[in-house]
Amino acid sequence: MIKASDIAKGTFILINNQPHVCVEREYVNPGKGSAFVRLKLKNIKTGSVLRQTNKVQDNLEDVSVEYKEVQFLYADSESYAFMDTKTYEQFTIPIEGEEEKRDFLKDGENYQVVFWEQTPIDIKLPTKMVFTVSEAEKAERGDTVSGATKVITCETGLKVKVPLFIKQGDRILVNTETREYQERVNN
Amino acid sequence: MGPSLRQQLIRHARFTEAIRAFFRARGYAEVDTPALAPHLIPEPAIEVFQTEYLPARGSPRTMWLIPSPELWMKRLLAGGAGDIYQICKSFRNCDYGGPHHNPEFRLLEWYSVGAGYLDSIGVTEDLFSHLLARTVPGRPAAELSPPFVRITMQEAFLRYAGIDLARCQDPQAMKAAGREKGISMPDAPTWEEAFHIAFLTLVEPRLPRGKPLVLLDYPALVPTTARRRPGTPWSERWELYVDGVEIANCYTEETDPGELGSFVRREEERRRGSRTSHASDPEFADLFPPGFPACSGAALGVDRLEMVFAGEESLEGVILFPFSAILGGQSGRHA
Question: The pTM is what?
Answer without folding.
Answer: 0.81
